[in-house]
Amino acid sequence: MADASLREQLLRLLLLPVACILAVSSVAAYYLAREPATDAYDGALIDAGIALADRIHVRDGTLAVDLPSAAEQILRTDQFDTIYYLVRDPSGKLIAGDAGIPPPPVAQRPQDRSVFYDATYRDTRVRAAALLAPCGGRVCTITVAETTRKRDRLVREILLGSVMPQALLAVLTLALVWFGVARGLAPLERLSGEIRKLSPRDLRPIEPAQAPAETRPLIEALNQLLVQVEESNRNQQRFLANAAHQLRTPLAGLRAHAELALAQPLSEESRAEIEQVHSATVRIARLANQLLALARAERGGRVEPHSAVDLKGLAEGAADEWVHSALARDLDLGFELAPASVSGDALLLREALGNLVHNSIEYAPRGGHITVRTGARNGRPFMEIEDDGSGIPPQERERVLERFYRMPGTAGTGSGLGLAIVREIAAGHGAALEISHGMGGHGCRVAITFPHG
Amino acid sequence: MRILIVEDDPSLASGLTRILEAEGYAVDVAGRGEEAVGAARGERFDLVILDIGLPGMDGFEVLRRLRGAEHRVPVLVLTARDTVSDRVHGLDLGADDYMAKPFAMPELAARVRALIRRSQAQTGPKILHGPLTLDTVARRAYLAGEPLELAAREWAVLEVLLGKVEKIVSKESIIQAVAGWDEDLSPNAIEVYISRLRTKLERAGVHIRTVRGFGYMLEEFKIR
């Protein structure tokens, strides 16, 4: 979207009207200011003509202008301009002055009053005034012209004094819009920050009280959506709980009956068949558990807020269950537990550690050793498990985290979901999952390291 | 010994019944919570196996009513749900043990035995474990009928382990249970007592397993 920026849109929208207003107001200001000033200058010009009229005398029967050279000097110059004059008798004959001053346009010839007009004299623009003056009982024509320097200066002053501030105002307005938009949008920035802080686990409605009124409808709409998302999360959780119940109860029955059957005297063939049923049941149960765990571990799968979880206590609480599985496979399961507190979801963290322990139990050779550790390293809480089994080669360490991936040649009945679940859970806690080898380069070590407490 | 199974799934209920009957218990089954509360009021059971996900009145409610009526019968809760809050909730309401479905039958049988033994230990003076007998009133121990000499501390440690057969007992909790208020027992001292107990009990097939870095577990007695 080319005009996605509110700022650009606003500027584009404002630029033309502002420019138009600026142009119109400049022109208006120019004419409004120039008119009275020009009138005043014209008045001064005509005064010079009237003064000149008084100087026309009849001498020896001819008309002459009696103008001492000092007076002429005064008449001809003012601070800025050169003034020209011309006096003609009624027949149009030159009496005195500068013959070259152009006469007024025909339509404007003076009848009973003076006229003003613009002309060019000696290659310079001049402002001229023509008036009729009585002379010896007749009427002479006096023309006075002056260069336009002070008038031009006036125009410049008007432009500078009135149009410039307006142009400045326009530029300032646009700049204000540019920065004002940023300032005006600051509440939206803050709102974005608030929204960024939300997570599937923390869908608290946004507090509209400190937001500007204009953003409230947005916040309210968003809050409504949050309520819906939370509700849908809860529905999913309910569905998972129900699915778990619906799956596990019949599986428990199936397993119970298979084990009962195996406890009875059976033909070798029947025993083999029922053992198949039994092991398939155990596998399905495990798979169902893992799929449910994966669904819970995924973003939005659980809406329980994080709370303080002691990793040591977590491992101790689950140790009973693990030790029995380990003993059944003749493995030595040991613990090196130091207190470590993280903010997290206790059920998911227990699931993650349990998956790691079960992986080791599943793949360790008989008589092997497995150690569960919790504590803090460089200020970061961790939980890890180390075994002396066959390990995971470096080139497989990324792939084993994929769902349903199993290393080639792996024995056991795993589904390939265990580590994928661990990865989801670690990610959901902002924790790093690292697979390496155990002490002395043998076996496998999988560590989940949490961010600084 | 009489056990009440509260489970609405007929297949699982019948499986549990047959396994527990094979272990020598008398078994009654209730398919609904209301039925279970009525049965427990009317008759005396040594153990209740209670499913949480019941139609109508759920397992938590059944448990609440049993405990509300001052029933001290041990309750083993079964659940197909697996939220920590369920587990905590169940234990808070007074469940004695907790198992997630599906489970292995031998494990269920072991838990049932442990719960019944524990409740008898609380009511009776004698604790039995295979060939081992602890007479808590006379404070005498017998191994395969022969008197067994135990120092006071050894007796205390063994009593703690016998209270939680097949469960890991951490060293710290042994120290807490064994040491007096003003004593400062070291974990090493516990190791010494365990080692002496092993010397005395191993020959009769009573095994104490070390859980490295954590504690000890008295294994269930198995005839070999």
Descriptive overview:
The complex is a heterodimer of chains A (453) and B (224). Chain A is of the alpha+beta class and 453 residues long. Chain A has three domains: 6-156, Beta-Lactamase (2-Layer Sandwich), CATH 3.30.450; 198-305, Helix Hairpins (Orthogonal Bundle); 306-453, Histidine kinase-like ATPase, C-terminal domain (Heat Shock Protein 90, 2-Layer Sandwich), CATH 3.30.565. Helices cover 50% and strands 20% of the residues of chain A. Chain A has nine helices and 14 strands. In chain A, the strands form four sheets. Chain A has a five-stranded antiparallel β-sheet with strand order 4-3-7-6-5. Chain A has a five-stranded mixed β-sheet with strand order 9-11-12-14-13. In chain A, a hairpin with a 2-residue loop joins β11 and β12. In chain A, α1 packs antiparallel against α3 (149-184) and α8 runs antiparallel to α9. Chain A is rod-shaped, with a radius of gyration of 51 Å. Chain A starts with 5 loop residues before the first helix and ends with a strand. Chain B folds into two domains: 2-123, Rossmann fold; 126-218, Winged helix-like DNA-binding domain superfamily/Winged helix DNA-binding domain (Arc Repressor Mutant, subunit A, Orthogonal Bundle), CATH 1.10.10. The two termini of chain B are 26 Å apart. In chain B, the strands form three sheets. Chain B has a five-stranded parallel β-sheet with strand order 2-1-3-4-5, with helices on both faces. Chain B has a four-stranded antiparallel β-sheet with strand order 6-7-8-9. In chain B, a hairpin with a 2-residue loop joins β6 (126-129) and β7. Chain B has 224 residues and is of the alpha/beta class. Chain B has eight helices and twelve strands. In chain B, α2 (33-42) packs parallel to α3 (59-68) and α6 crosses α8. The chains are: A alpha+beta (453), B alpha/beta (224). Chains A and B meet through α5, α6, α7, β9 and α8 of A and α1 and α5 of B.
